[in-house]
Design goal:
The structure is a homotetramer of 311-residue chains. With 311 residues, chain A is of the alpha+beta class. Chain A is 16% helix and 37% strand. Chain A is globular. The two termini of chain A are 34 Å apart. Chains in contact: A-B, A-C, A-D, B-C, B-D, C-D.
């Protein structure tokens, strides 16, 4: 039996203390599409996604994150991962029945040694949009004619914070074979951030050192848009709706241009992300940044907030 | 009394044989805002316009154009123009009462010697959008959060066709003091097109020679959008809705980038126009193009249709 | 004789303590075109400008501004302005011979009552670029094939600071017939900024209250670029060259999107400006902002510096 | 030993009858970077590429294509492919020493059963640009400050023509495990085009049926740019230089926006390509187009030429 393999970041299951308020942010303001409601959970996807959901919202006592979902390359990878995680890593693995999470096949859930709640799954339905929303282009999900103009296109990455970020990233590499695309070291040699990928094609998780040493959590989920113009359009839409933003600009790491916006109810943050680069090179060597290489981690602009939601 | 003066192209009063079908094009597909209905006429404006309307639609036996409206610089210019047109040009001038055309003050109407139906007016109301559509930016009319994403911004120019286009353009210059911004001559020295402006800041009317020698008519009304990306977005929206387009590209004359789309019911054509240039230079000399200066009148791309609507 | 009239902002004559260092910023980094050197002054224009220059650089003991140049609508306006300024305003007016400033006809210079150094002129040569740089498009000056990719297109406005900004703006309106396009009042009713225009089509001078009560000066000259993408490209180019930037974002007033950059030698600041709106409406009423209308004067992003160069 | 695997399209080795004329197109007009000259071959890469080359030019008796290069996932894949191709497919495989093609490790070359000249390689040097051209961003190759503004970013795909395109595509799938991302069938059920990928993430080869039944050949190499605006900028640059273009628009298949341009000397065509979509989904099912699904294979605009270069 060959090694199990992850194919990509798939979705994030979010919790909020006020489902309607959070839906007003995710659907009305940001432009996610509602695909299904089941057992009090609302499943959403971005307009360029075929899969059933890339984010879900469930009402809970406080805002949190139930799990970050990763899709495996093959169906049999689930079994292999479950065994490996239990045997070699000594972790508790829970099996989730097909369709317990709507649209999804069987899955396993576990907490990483650093406390990040992960889910692995392979099967995911690809429901058609309602007929009047379906694009005439067969390779496109939703027509944009009646869609929120600034709607993000597809999930790109998550940023997670950890008081032991280097250890967390190391475990992702060693146990789960995540590839490092870039990393950033402080002047004293300590690692501030490691930018890793399940498939090696693009950064899918930024693992950031939490200097405040809080419990681990999620800083944001990033979705791709098409251009820098889209970031200004998104800022405009957020301002018109009175939804908070946390800065516009461009990261040096990843070269992604950004606009951050935030659900005031839950604190969950969405990054609109444009540009960046892809890796198809099988011999890619991680990009090594040292503090002082550049004046600032942002190539232009500022991120105005470091709050994040604990799991 | 000083010479009367025109300030700008203001609006076009269109006729259609099927009002609902044409509204489906102008409002649902293109993204004009309905401001008012009065006496069977629907008054529309673009999302970046403060004035009451820049296009109106009236049901009639056949598609046509009731008038092309030009705003005068001063209120007293109406009286002066009326006298000049009757006395010096021997034209019939009709006075229109305030609010006969909704939102508009008193106006005069006349047919140019070449048969183009013109209206001059000065006063135009600037109604606020409905509260939920009003932008928070005081210098912007509509918030774009609930607006058709590809909605054009503001009226730019009209293109009119005439079997004696050079004579028509000459009269606009001599009688009405239009300024010539560019012109294009064929190899045999005959003039194909003259691109004129009431205010001298931008092309407001393209006067094109009709080689088929048909009665005069309107080829299109052009509205500004923000970028070349917007043209592709507009093409996408038209295709998704099954609305015909007539080409994407860039004109050499005016340097405007274009996407043409057309109301299948009436044949009225809207150009989405991006880029181009402005003239603030008081000493501007007309740009003189000769056939052969460039391979094609388009810098890139093609216009696929020369149909136009007779007045 | 009719009232003299201004047609537009034309150019700014800058001084720098190190001409070569400042040229490295203006020409190599920002992408201005050098048109001519005469008597130690280097005359520059933007790539979409036909006129001889829109900015000039002269070496002097310290960085400063010799004058802000405004073009009159007619040649005879110079004489009329000179007489009016001397007789009615009691100002000293100096005549400048044709070609004393390269490429320019006769001009008058004076200091406004608040100490802003103004020049009025009418004639300006329109030299062709070198043949290998001339665009094939007759309505375009420079081909962009060998031009700095981020080169700004054409002069848009100046921002001037004054310890009595309201008085300064009032004089511009009353003596010189500047039109107010927008203004911004503080909670206590005092005016923070007045945004005025010579031609009434676009903001050409922002007159800002200097809370530090320093002598009057120039905060920046703004040049138009084509899109928000261009702002990110300009930021990228500045960072690659180690040239300082002062923020990216969008103003609420004027709706202009901005990137600020600065000549480290002289402190002269250039704004790359995209978007905004134009006024062709003869009945435009000034947009009145009150502190508190919006959280911030910026719609998104920040300006990071308030330094400016004294005249 | 596991199955050998291809990682991606890597480069195309082109031949031209006039090297200098073709370099004027590839380097001066399009903006490729010259990396090295060796044995009469000039090695070029795009500004966002780290690898030694993605296209090379060699002078030959006539324009042609020496090979299309694909990079293997692992070094040992070369040996495995060589054995498989000889034993199972009965093809002649030629080994190429390291550095015979500059910057490249050992490689194998063979002609597919349909006559397409392929090369497989694994090692490729990643030379730094000259210091003054190196970006300050460690994850970027060239600073764009002195680069041709319209320079394409990175290789995307090739389009190859074949009188038996369906058979050619089938062999790529069966022998080399290419994945089908989209395909297009005519009304009579015959296949017009198959759009395949070595890595499954994006279309890397379009295999098009040649109705003229000519020997197989290369229609174009496509390179990514960042936005639709870039396509208009590229069209502008080509026109200013007198370099031919073959249309601007958007494909329905792949959703890629395009501008085609062509080396008049050799006939080799470069597509500037913006937009499109990526596949990270392990369960992707090919998109099946039928003639009649859409009016035209282009969503907007036209491709004006079907000429292509025989190998």
């Amino acid at each position: 039996m060959s090694e199990p393999e992850l194919a990509r970041i798939g979705h994030v299951a979010l919790e909020t203390a006020d489902l309607d308020a959070s839906l007003a942010f995710f659907v009305d303001a940001v432009g996610f599409e509602e695909v299904e409601r089941q057992d009090g959970t609302v499943y959403l996807r971005a307009v360029d996604e075929f899969d059933h959901h890339s984010v879900s919202l469930t009402e809970a006592e406080r805002a949190g994150v139930d799990h970050i979902g990763w899709q495996t390359r093959n169906p049999e990878d689930l079994e292999a991962y479950a065994e490996m995680l239990e045997t070699e890593e000594g972790l508790d693995v829970t099996w989730v029945d097909a369709d317990e999470e709507a649209g999804q096949g069987e899955a396993i859930r576990f907490s990483t040694p650093h406390g990040h709640p992960f889910e692995f799954y392979h099967e995911m339905e690809k429901p058609d949009p309602p007929a009047e929303r379906r694009s005439k282009l067969k390779n496109k999900t939703y027509s944009r004619t009646t869609t929120n103009a600034i709607a993000p296109r597809r999930i790109d990455h998550v940023q997670i914070w950890d008081a032991d970020a280097p250890g967390c990233a190391e475990w992702l590499q060693e146990a789960l074979d995540f590839k490092v695309q870039e990393y950033y070291d402080r002047e004293d040699g300590s690692r501030w951030g490691t930018f890793v990928s399940a498939n090696g094609n693009k950064i899918e998780a930024a693992v950031i050192d939490d200097e405040a040493e809080q419990p681990p959590g999620l800083h944001h989920i990033a979705y791709k848009v098409d251009s820098a113009d889209d970031l200004f359009d998104a800022a405009d839409a957020m301002n018109e709706r009175g939804v908070p933003t946390d800065g516009i600009g461009q990261h040096s790491i990843s070269r992604g241009k950004f606009l951050y916006t935030r659900d005031e109810e839950s604190g969950h943050r969405i990054e609109f992300n444009a540009g960046g680069y892809l890796v198809f090179d099988p011999n890619w060597e991680p990009i090594a940044w040292q503090e002082g290489d550049l004046e600032d981690r942002q190539w232009i602009g500022q991120i105005e907030s470091t709050d994040r939601v604990q799991y």
